[in-house]
Amino acid sequence: MKNTRKRGETLVESIHDAAVKLIREVGYANLTFQQIAKAAKTSRSVLYRRWANMFDLLMEIVDDRSSNVLGGQLIDRIEDTGTLRGDLLHLLTLYQSTYAEIGPEILSAVLFEIGQGNNKVPEAEVDAAAKNILVMRKLLKNAKSRGEKIRRVGDITLTLPFNLIRMENLMYKKVDSKRIALFVDEILIPVFTMQ
Amino acid sequence: MKNTRKRGETLVESIHDAAVKLIREVGYANLTFQQIAKAAKTSRSVLYRRWANMFDLLMEIVDDRSSNVLGGQLIDRIEDTGTLRGDLLHLLTLYQSTYAEIGPEILSAVLFEIGQGNNKVPEAEVDAAAKNILVMRKLLKNAKSRGEKIRRVGDITLTLPFNLIRMENLMYKKVDSKRIALFVDEILIPVFTMQ
DNA sequence: TGGATAAGACACAATGCGTATCTTATATTT
DNA sequence: AAATATAAGATACGCATTGTGTCTTATCCA
Fold this sequence. Notes:
The structure is a homodimer. By secondary structure, the first copy, chain A, is mostly helical. Chain A has eleven helices and no strands. In chain A, 31% of the residues are buried.
């Protein structure tokens, strides 16, 4: 029996996969290192050596998955569709795909950790929020230069599009294109444009 | 030593208090029946007799605290301030006071359970959302009859004011009157009125 | 005052945690 | 290819928590 022992990246990958599978099956709250080790066909020691606690493992998975989706940064992937409405639809769809990939179970686990006062998350959050604000500024600037009438709004309002997607994923798990269009037409367009 | 053993309501109350204190201290995720029993100066048996699991206890606390705040239903406590803006400010302030009372730690624990697919929460949630929609309908109707120009929006958009408060409590823990005013002026007024 | 009721004390097997130690497979260096 | 370093896997420890069960005892109420 040679080459039956996984190492390095391969090992980590199968642990991630096992963890995600188990989060979906039993939920983050009931997740144990024991189960993960068993599912990944490795040993508990291996897990404890690499991650001090479940949350560290979770964050690694999130980082991994979100960078897979937003391979480049979000700001590099937005498009000028010719109208603010089109741009927003595109942006929300793109952003939603991140959450769909990460998965609502994992997302809610992260949110839970925020709620519990885990201070590693907020740092990452603030970074993400700052980038998202830049994205919105760019979108609105594009719209303005096309001649669309844009309201002046503060940074908090600029995070609204992202918070809508986040909230929907958290509460209802399913966000389809119809709902995204609704957000754009009934909420975002009135908020960001004069009519 | 007589009258040293708590019973009924008194007992439950001190258990609730102990639980809330511990949720704040160690977080819902790390909460144990053992700790609660100790903090409430009672026995573990007492807890297991009354609640099948931690979540049942949590929900009882939430019910208790939210009914303390919204003693009557929300719809009975809204006021006609003379403008939609004033009405919205009043509504959000009222709604925020619920969350402030319940506490962000407990809120995030509930949200966590939703994320984990706990199906007792969504039922309560759907009820609450339906009531909130009625509240918004009433507010908008009042505004309309005053002559304010109101947009036609769907139910999902009607839940926006409540979702904003919820999200803020979840993410940032502190929601002051300044932020509420910002929500009203930059988001809600543009969404619900024509200008 | 006596019986009903509920609180509290304690014991149990089972499970997970975090750590530590030892063995063994795989990779790297010489 | 052999020697060495590195990392994976197996196993065991004490401890905490769980859920259940049983017995005792305080408190309530008729």
